[in-house]
Amino acid sequence: GILPEDKASYIESLKKEGNTVVMVGDGINDTPALSMADVSISLQDSSDIARELADITLVSNSLNDIVALRMISGLFKRIHSQYRLIVGLNTSFIVLGALGLLTPQMLAMLHNGSTFLIASGSTRSLLH
Prior knowledge:
Shape: elongated
Strand order of the largest sheet: 1-2-3
């Protein structure tokens, strides 16, 4: 029951307060608000322009998919974090090995041990 201009101005006011805004819309009347939001989401049966404007288009019409989308975004954050950790550790192991401070056997044990620990830590639940 809100006019399209009011949706866009409400999103703008939320952004001015420092909030990150996600807008879900499905029609032409939602396009001003979709374009104002930090992240815009459209549904499968949305109008063509809403789907074109949206950053993300859900493959169904269920808003429950937004929960799955949020979980996936957490998974990507975890992947990037774990990747940086693995690259940092392996780089330091290579440097220590090149300097002769660690034997090849110790390097293999450190590499495999750190890989196992990081992989084990990655299996924790995304929902906390």
